[in-house]
Amino acid sequence: MPELPEVETVAQGLRRTILRKKLKGVEVFLPKTVRHGDLRDLVGRTVRRVDRVGKLMLLRWSGEMTLLWHLKMTGQILLARPAETLVKHTHLRFSFNGLDLRFVDLRQFGYVKLVPTAEAEAQAEFRALGPDALGLDHSEFLERIRGRRGRIKPLLLNQSFIAGIGNIYADESLFRAGIHPLTPASDLSHDQRRRLFGAINDVLTEALSLGGSSISRFCDVHGKLGYFQTRHQVYRRHQEACPACGSVIERFRLGGRGTHFCPQCQKV
DNA sequence: AGTTCCCTGAGG
DNA sequence: CCTCAGGGAACT
Length: 268
Known about the structure:
By secondary structure, the chain is of the alpha+beta class. It has helices at about 5-15, 115-120, 125, 140-145, 150-155, 165-175, 190-210, and strands at about 25-30, 35, 45-55, 55-60, 65-70, 75-80, 90-95, 100-105, 110-115, 250-255, 255-260.
């Protein structure tokens, strides 16, 4: 978290507000947040485009510079009036005319990298990404899952398989598809693969339309909360009744992640 | 394939 | 005090 719908929500907010604006100044309060490049090189440039691949955001600046931006767990990109006091955990401040863009990240896992646009796709975090989960082609999904040996949930979380799915949407998609998280990918029937593809698409699309899931303080660039957490059917609903069959939702750890499922609706 | 690490705050 | 939250890299 933020996962694909949340990052896209932020990207949409940025597209509506900072395109064509010229950067007047930058302040770095937590230097380790800048993993590569010198943000002062951006002063005087304008934001030309905001792209997103998986959970990675890309700000394209004039002069062919790209800012790779990963929010990781608790990163927030917030617009603010310049006079507003800096909230705790503000690590970066981009100053535009009459408008600030601020990076706030409680756990300090998020980061930016500034590189020439020509080198952006050669960066490790970009190279390691599979096709974006939103708008993924059905035949490409089937092709990519063919021959995979591991269990299905860790595979969904693997960004080089498909980019953008995190813990919430993995659990929600598997529930909707009626698939147990431990099922070996190679054991999935054709029908299960088809249902899983549909479930991923539906979950991500619905989540995006509701502004994402506001878990761990996620909000858009205006500080507005998303609503999809109210639609979660299994994620963090362990010991509650399954919305489909009434069984008790269970939770266990898988690959270090909390994993939620209905033992009745999702059999191995 | 599983574990550790980064990091802070919430909750017990 | 302790455990837990988890994206993703690094490690075993």
